[in-house]
Design a protein that fits this description.
single chain; about 425 residues; alpha+beta; 8-stranded mixed sheet; 5-stranded mixed sheet; globular
């Protein structure tokens, strides 16, 4: 049995009363994992048919399933193709409760490592703008990788202090998600070592941080907008206490919905989630389509499109060249001047002298039918893993030379360049399959 802090147990005993023993018993059960299907690429029904799995659904998220015991979901080419995100089941609730729609301007304020942002992005269907922020630059890099692997093209990934964002973007966002820093009591079962951090910096420490962060969120939310506040802790000081403190100071907000997931009542480690609505009429906004401020010669890009047989239609006004990097910008953008930006939109690749080198993000953002030159590997075949390990592959010698989109059972993984039956591997080394 995990050694839980006595002060923590006293608070839980007060909260749960006669349910306390059932709560303690939940720590003796196995930790449950989950996967959330990426609807930008595949439906849950299609995923189950493709893999032949029979999985139990997560009740509070229609795209979520509990992991099958003994299956390593991170060691599968379909994971590298971005067909699903590995996520603790309770953590699937916050993004589900925020009523985002395609075309919204959305902020995920504390976004790393990307579970909530990838869920929001999938529901936005690459329309509007998703701003994914994390104050930690190192954590934001992991966030970027997950957003790119999911095929999300309308994102802006930044690493900024929420205070600075609030000063720059007052009443700017339609929807905001704040999965706030917390004492992590809901993680004790999965990561018992977190109890040591709790004893050093517990609920009192984090509740102060949360009250600042939610204040910044209130400033950035438009009248008529919605905001979700969530934690993975059970502390009433951090959860109900933070919301009560906030509502007392912001009569323009109302509590729409409040949900607690307790590990002795559901199959999950636990979460606290609230949906808040800001009073006022949501003004109709005429979105000005993004137009690049600089024009550049697209000859190298056009030559690549022809070589790879690409059929995807891009609005040339949204192509942006920064240094030698080519981006396809979201349909609307904020002024990023002075912000720590990791990525704007869909990173297509680099122009090197007179040639274009495509990125991994470009590949996984495509659909198979958008490319005329395909090498499709069965995801259960060892060749798919060889490709993900950045090894050279042999291909049919009748295939013409040039660029190919490499897929796993129809879902893009990355690029390769074929020359006389030998495929030079262009999979990003930083994404390489880890043995």
């Amino acid at each position: 049995m995990i050694q839980l802090p006595e002060k923590f147990l006293e608070t839980i005993r007060t909260q749960l009363d006669d349910e306390f023993d059932a709560f303690l018993e939940s720590y003796s059960r196995p930790v449950l994992g989950g996967i959330r299907i990426n609807r930008l690429k595949i439906t849950p029904e299609e995923y189950l048919a493709l893999t032949g799995q029979s999985l139990e659904s997560v009740p509070w998220n229609g795209d979520g399933f509990y992991c099958s015991e003994g299956t390593v979901y991170s060691k599968n080419p379909l994971y590298y193709a971005g067909l699903y995100y590995i996520q603790e089941p309770s953590a699937m609730l916050p993004a589900q409760m925020l009523p985002v729609e395609p075309g919204d301007i959305v902020l995920d304020m504390c976004a790393a490592p990307g579970g909530k942002s990838t869920a929001l992005g999938a529901r936005m269907n690459n329309q509007g703008l998703l701003v994914s922020n994390d104050i930690s630059y190192s954590r934001a890099k992991a966030l970027l990788k997950n957003i790119e692997a999911f095929g999300i093209k309308n994102s802006l990934v930044i690493s900024e202090d929420p205070k600075k964002l609030a000063s720059r973007l007052p009443e700017y966002f339609d929807k905001i998600l704040i999965d706030a820093p917390c004492s992590g009591e809901g993680m004790f079962h999965k990561k018992p070592s977190m109890t040591q951090n709790w004893e050093k910096t517990g609920p009192e420490f984090y509740s102060k941080i949360q009250r600042e962060i939610i204040e910044y969120g209130a400033r950035m939310l438009k009248p008529g907008g919605d905001m979700v506040f969530s934690t993975c802790t059970f502390s009433p000081l951090e959860d109900e206490g933070t919301i009560q403190y906030f509502l007392e100071r912001h009569p323009e907000f109302e509590l729409v919905k409040e949900v607690r997931l307790w590990p002795h009542k559901v199959k999950g480690e636990g979460h606290y989630v609230t949906l808040l609505h800001k009073a006022g009429t949501k003004e109709h906004r005429e979105v000005q389509p993004y137009t690049s401020s600089k024009k550049f010669k697209t000859d190298a890009l056009d030559a690549f499109f022809k070589d790879a047989g690409l059929k995807v239609q891009l609005d040339r006004k949204r192509l942006e060249l920064s240094g030698d990097h080519v981006y396809y910008m979201p349909e609307t953008m904020i002024d990023t001047n002075g912000l720590r930006v990791l990525r704007t939109g869909w990173y297509l690749g680099n122009i090197k002298k007179d040639r274009f080198e495509p990125s991994g993000a470009f590949a996984v953002g495509l659909k198979k039918e958008e490319c005329g030159h395909i090498i499709d590997l069965d995801y259960r075949d060892g060749a798919a893993v060889k490709y993900l390990k950045c090894e050279t592959l042999e291909a049919d010698e009748t295939f013409k030379n040039g660029w190919y989109l490499v897929c796993a059972s129809g879902y893009p993984l990355g690029w390769g360049k074929l020359n006389r039956g030998t495929l030079k591997n262009k999979y990003p080394s930083g994404w390489r399959w880890q043995s």
